[in-house]
Every structure is written in structure tokens, then in C-alpha cells.
Write a structure and sequence with these properties.
Elements: H1 5-9, E1 16-20, H2 23-31, E2 37-41, E3 44-51, E4 54-60, H3 65-77, E5 83-92, E6 102-110, E7 132-133, H4 136-150, H5 153-157, H6 159-165, E8 172-179, H7 187-196, E9 200-204, H8 207-217, E10 221-229, H9 235-261
Parallel strand pairs: 1-4, 1-5, 5-10, 6-8, 8-9
Antiparallel strand pairs: 2-3, 3-4, 5-9, 6-7, 6-10
Helix pairs in contact: 2-9, 3-8, 4-9
């Protein structure tokens, strides 16, 4: 997709969707939208508001690929969104991807898709591909927004969280994000994914499903994930605390900066 960032979002006429899997990930975004009005569809609250001069629809997608795909479809069919942004947490896989870093997904793979021997492992049946691309203009804008946020971690999450999670030298990465219906939380699982898909930077549970829906509809999509853990044996211990103290605030700050740039 060769559209500019402004064209990718259709800012003047149609809303931009902001999705997170969990309410905790979306909390800081909703706090910046005090006048948002909620509409319930398919058991989900869709919050419509104005933010940084753009129409937005924010929603908790719920966890997993099916829930995320359902939510993305409602956003497109019911709310007529022009683009979808997904933000939240992920486990780090790539070398040098550490807790507190931000990963912007340029392409996505469902790591639990396996229809072999009918199709190669990871390939989406009848799509002829395993990787789905994000919108290049949105990816570039998200990368710039993420870099601005990480330049001032204390200003966004506070000195205590920066010290606790050692966020002083956090980095922005861009590349492959994996999605699957498992919370990857053992070193063995993490190493297996790294061996099978060595270019992967992070793993989560929704992004590739939303990317597939957006591919089907020809809709711009991009995602940014805060690294909450290394998807290893310590993942379950780090996850909840990081979401509460860091990830939600980073999500709000990055999206706000992105909307300012568009």
C-alpha cells in the first residue's frame, strides 16, 4: 500500500479504530476520552469520540484471534472505520527485544496455523501466503510516535515504573509479530517459536487475525505492542504488573502522538 499517512486514515470523514484486547490496556486511552459515547454491539462497548482532531472508535476486543476478528468486522461493518490500530502488550522473542521496548508490526503470522500437508505450515489456506502486511504509512507514523514517547519515559509512566522495569534505555523495533491462541509463557515454547520463525520480534494473541480481516476488506492496519515479558518461564509474573503500570499509559501516549502526526 503506497498511501500517505493522511490517506491511510481517512481522517476527515471516517473514524480511526483503536483496539486493545484487555480493558487494562485500553484504560489510559479511555481516560483521555471523557466525552466518548458508548454503543454496545456483540457484547462489546465501542467508544466514539474526537481525539486530536480525528474521529475515533475505541474498543476492548477481548483476548484471542476469534474475538479480535469479530471486533474488527463490527468496526468495519457497523462503524465504517477507515483504518484500525491495535495496541497492547506482547512477549518479546527477537534478540535484543527487552521489557519496556515497543514493537511496531510491519507484518504478521499466525504461529498456530498448520494445515499441513494440505498447505505449508503457517500458510493461510487459500490465501497463498503466511505473512500479512501492515499499512506502510501507518507503520512509519507509529514508529515515529513510539520514538517520541520513549524519549521521555518518566513523563509518560513515572519515575517509579521506569526504575522498576528498567525502562531508561527502551527501544523501538519494527518487524514481524506472531499471533496465536496461546499465552506463550514457557522458555521451551519461546525457543520453539524462535527456531521456527527466527525473524519474529514478539508474540501475542490478536494482531494477525485483525490483519487478516483488514486484508479481506482492503483496510489499512497497524499495531504497536509494549513488551511486557520475554514469553518465558517468568512471563506470568511480569505480565499483570506491567500492564497496569506501563503498557496502558504507553498505548495512550503513542496513539495520541500518532494522531497528532496524521
Amino acid at each position: 500500500m503506497g498511501a500517505t499517512a493522511g490517506e491511510a486514515t481517512g481522517a476527515a470523514t471516517r473514524p480511526i479504530a483503536i483496539m486493545s484486547a484487555m480493558r487494562e490496556e485500553l484504560a489510559a486511552v479511555l481516560a483521555l476520552l471523557p466525552d466518548a459515547r458508548a454503543t454496545v454491539v456483540a457484547g462489546r462497548e465501542f467508544w466514539q469520540a474526537q481525539w486530536q482532531g480525528h474521529q475515533v472508535v475505541a474498543v476492548q476486543a477481548r483476548i484471542g484471534k476469534v474475538a479480535a476478528a469479530t471486533t474488527a468486522t463490527v468496526l468495519i461493518e457497523r462503524f465504517g472505520v477507515h483504518s484500525i490500530l491495535f495496541t497492547g502488550v506482547a512477549g518479546g522473542l527477537g534478540q535484543g527485544v527487552k521489557v519496556g521496548d515497543l514493537v511496531v508490526g510491519s507484518h504478521f503470522v499466525q504461529h498456530d496455523m498448520d494445515c499441513s500437508p494440505l498447505f505449508p505450515r503457517f500458510e493461510l489456506p487459500l490465501y497463498g501466503r503466511s505473512e500479512l502486511l501492515a499499512n506502510a504509512a501507518l507503520v512509519n507514523a507509529l514508529g515515529r510516535a513510539a520514538a517520541v514517547v520513549l524519549a521521555d519515559p518518566v513523563g509518560h509512566v513515572g519515575a517509579s515504573a521506569v526504575a522498576q522495569f528498567q525502562l531508561q534505555h527502551a527501544s523501538v523495533h519494527q518487524g514481524l509479530i506472531l499471533s496465536g491462541d496461546r499465552f506463550v509463557s514457557t522458555t521451551a515454547e519461546s525457543l520453539a517459536l524462535q527456531a521456527a520463525l527466527p525473524m519474529a520480534l514478539a508474540v501475542e494473541m490478536e494482531g494477525a487475525a485483525v490483519a487478516q480481516v483488514c486484508h479481506d476488506y482492503g483496510l489499512p492496519f497497524a499495531a504497536v505492542r509494549s513488551i511486557s515479558d520475554r514469553a518465558d518461564d517468568a512471563a506470568h509474573g511480569d505480565f499483570a504488573l506491567f500492564v497496569q503500570t506501563v503498557a496502558s499509559r504507553y498505548s495512550a501516549a503513542v496513539v495520541s502522538e500518532l494522531l497528532r502526526l496524521l
